[in-house]
User: What shape does this take?
Amino acid sequence: MNKSQPQPRELLILLAGNPNSGKTSLYNWMAGARQHVGNYPGVTVEKKSAHFQHEGQRIELVDLPGVYSLLAASPEEVIARDEILAGDASVVIQVIDATNLERNLHLTAQLLEMGVPLVYALNMSDEAEANGLTFDLDLLADLLGGPVVPTNGITGAGVQDLLNVALERAADPTPAHGRVPYGYDIENAVRAVAQGFEGDDAVSARRRAIALLDGIPDPHAPPHAVSSAKRAMERLERRGGRPLDVQLAEARYGFALGVATEASRTPAHYVRRDRTMRLDSIFLHRIWGLPIFIGLMWIVFNLVFTLGDPPMRWIESSLFWLRTNIMTVWPDTVAPLFRSLLVDGVISGVGGVISFLPNILLLFLAIAFLEDSGYMARVAFLMDRVMHKMGLHGKSFIPMLIGLGCTVPAIMATRTLENKRDRLTTILVTPFVSCGARLTIYALLIPAFFAPRWRGWVLWGIYLTGILTAVGVARLLRGTLFRGDSAPFVMELPPFRWPTWRSVGIHMWDRAWMYLQKAGTIILAISILLWALGSFPKRTEFTRDYAAEIAATADPEIAEELANLEQAEALEYTAIGRIGKFLEPVIRPLGFDWRVGTALVGAFAAKEVFVAQLGIVFSLGATDESSDSLRETLQREYTPLQGLAMMLFCLLSAPCMATIVVTRRETNSWGWALGMLFGMTFIAWACTFLVYQAGLFILTGSM
Amino acid sequence: MKIERLSAKVEDYLETILRLSETPRGARTGDIAAALNVQPSTVSAALKSLTEQGLLNYEPYGVAELTPKGRHVAEEIAGRHVGLLRFFTDTLGLTPEESEVTACGMEHDVTPLVLDRIALLGEFLRSHPELNEKWRAVRSTAKGERPPGVESGLDELPPGVRGVVLSVDVGAALRKRLVEMGVTPGVLIAVERVAPLGDPIAVEVRGYRLSMRKAEAAKIRVKWRPGLI
Assistant: This one.
């Protein structure tokens, strides 16, 4: 810690730039592990910031969302613009991808209008130079009105220089000079409109005038500025023969092209990004593109779930070990309630939280790799045709695929979708894709009710029903809640690059930490609540005196049977049992009795609990999905139609409370999370009702 | 009436006689020999043989006249010839000489079905001026010639042809997005590839790759530019 010199204030440095400009890798080099990930208030746009010291100066570095412009057309653009304009920033660093100077400088053209001190990081300049491009850094700095530092996001070269230069620049708060010339007619109009902003300084008046002319609403603009902008727009659009925003963009790109041409030299036989072109001809090949894609997705799925399985088992077995040890050292005569709280509530709750962790880490390893390499944009490109028809986005494919394994990481995977409507639709329909936990229920019920030759077909039918429901609900949501044109699919296909382990690692760590911190705590709390509901009120009077009978018998089998009967009676008496009974009239038309209801309520903790709960209510003690005694009991008690109804209901109702909590976390709203819970329950009820009643009608000819 | 397939040589004679018999001089041995570039004595022998087959009325040193059967056959051959010739000059854009040589070589071998289809294709393009114009542009681009400045939506720009953006005729929100990505009037643009499922497309603009749906690309008007990328 450097405490020798006084530190007057913390400097705020903003990092701005295009998506795929290497902005985040530079940020990671500067911020290291000291970063903090959160959300901007009220929106789901991520805010990344870090506090650290450089040369004894305290610095807060904020990684702004990657944008192509500051015209406030998307939440990201609004945030980037507002953060820059807030006036707290000592300096704004723009990260410029040297291999794509022209489009990156279009953003510079807009940054120059903000009236802030600017520093430029010419990123990947060595890659561009390897391709034969050369840069005149002094001329570039001169034309852009701020120092230019060559950097490399992969090796971290130039990062210390960049910070030094940024600190120097911060000491001199005059804004960057340099402005975009819009041409005689437009400049006249800008001056006329700017006069309407009397309270503003010259820079701000010019910027707001240009924004008005660009068609960006400004609620605080004086009325005469607005009306004079309106008149100027009509006149200039008539004269130019095209919308004024197009003319303004042309002028900005004119500036960008001009600077790029003057300050960089391209060799006569420059072959543009030949590596990306070559890779695209493989990955986007007309015939091989899709098989390669399917192969890669297979790898991703197996990486997440096959490789994630052993660590999940280790976690489960170590928790089991912990549980048995506590149970041996803590006899059930001493404070039995706390013992049960610790063993059945807290430990299984912690297990419920961290057993997802291996999957989440591996999923974000895969996603970070796909995103940083540039393949994720290709996924959207390849799948857009199909997914668009379903009312989803090309990038929705990966969450749906992950949903086959587990819904919790699947919902976290929707972060790759930038558009809010696409993202919400995907979050809300992904739980219909049948996850691995629900497979346990089918594994129990299908052999119990169906002949061997039908079993495969029934299972396929269930999975297909889930996917078709997801598609149907997505289209329904598109037609109602998320009405309007689907988001335009105007997306950059970034150049292919090798991801750095550093970036991938930081990305994984961020996600895992966020999950533990934000979702884990709530999941733990709900687990304990469910434990309480399944334990209270305690039954003190049983129909028989089980304790005495167990003590009296010498046969361990009879003793076990008696203990199971006692457990079943106790469960019936608890809140969960009562809820199950209370719900009976509602679920009766679905073919369920109170015992199924009780199991369903318990299954909200995790879908596979359904099986264990059924075992308890039928007095069979601990059971799993391959338990033949449970299957025999079910066969005796229910018809195959009822079995089908149970599977259908489990498929379509909300998978588990972790899903709901993660949805709340990812949408930043309890409204969507509870909407999902009730919406899914309603859909499940309605579909099961129809199937069960129709089935009854067909089978017996009466309702 | 059934017509057996005749030899290429015989077909050439019949066609030439038909053409010459429409001139005031009629079809005479010397003119036929000149047109087919053979000796007059060869012609006489050939004419005799044609007369024997009932295709021709011919007296030595007189004018050769086609019988009704001969005229029918000759007209059919001439129809093929003209059909091919027209296809080569109009649709494929070959020079008249090249067309003539190619048509003469092909007309004897081509089956009626192929001929039919070729004629149909030529007719189809002639009756769709817009398509025909685009085809001509592609044709001349392929030869490295300057196409006659076709305008179309960006979605119709063939891969390998560059275009200049003329206008971006979309709603304000999408227009803002497109122009900020650099798709402004006057910029050079090219379709780099189409997704395996047929939509969306990837275009190259301002030195980078941008993808968009065909429905969006259709609203961007471009003027085609010559030459490959």
